[in-house]
Amino acid sequence: xxxxxxxxxxxxxxxxxxxxxxxxxxxxxxxxxxxxxxxxxxxxxxxxxxxxxxxxxxxxxxxxxxxxxxxxxxxxxxxxxxxxxxxxxxxxxxxxxxxxxxxxxxxxxxxxxxxxx
Amino acid sequence: xxxxxxxxxxxxxxxxxxxxxxxxxxxxxxxxxxxxxxxxxxxxxxxxxxxxxxxxxxxxxxxxxxxxxxxxxxxxxxxxxxxxxxxxxxxxxxxxxxxxxxxxxxxxxxxxx
Lengths: 117, 113
Description:
The structure holds two protein chains of two kinds.
Chain A lengths: L3 E4 L2 E4 L5 E7 L3 E9 L5 E7 L6 E2 L10 E5 L2 E6 L8 E10 L8 E2 L3 E5 L1
Parallel strand pairs in A: 2-11
Antiparallel strand pairs in A: 1-3, 3-8, 4-5, 4-9, 5-6, 7-8, 9-10, 9-11
Chain B lengths: L3 E2 L4 E5 L4 E7 L4 E9 L6 E7 L4 E4 L2 E6 L4 E6 L8 E9 L7 E2 L3 E6 L1
Parallel strand pairs in B: 2-11
Antiparallel strand pairs in B: 1-3, 3-8, 4-5, 4-9, 6-7, 7-8, 9-10, 9-11
């Protein structure tokens, strides 16, 4: 497994503003993902963060709203842009392929609880 | 379109007894299945997984059963302990899916003394 940290752990933001969430892993990983868990809902994949290239977004999510960076094998950021109350969720970073070895298992960070007022 | 479903939003079990959590899926392309446990204010923690070439995988108190023909899997916890009280999610990954996981809606397990 891997140790994953996220910053910030929580934030309260005003509508129309943007928030950047950071995800740091203690070892090199092949895959990094960003998920959203809306209140009372399951986890929904937003995008796969690709190192050195544009992220791969799932249906319903777009780069303008959720720009993602992944400059190296241990770090990624997710920005939630032009926020509205509907963006209030827990945002989770996960990793796969710890140490460069393929595996289906993903390991999750502690999450960032975002409230938009 | 919910491809992975957990029809029981909650389950209550006495300490020491067996907990059985169920999960159904609709996508025939899913070939790897995982269970995660989630405590409040924490990220999901990986518990156990199973490949579609198997019908059972066991790890300590946790056993996962897969019935491919019924598109059904279950997680058995024996014996259940109060620390097992959490939300349990099943997840599935398709062939060639690049590790992408589709999660179920979750089941809140409460283990009572």
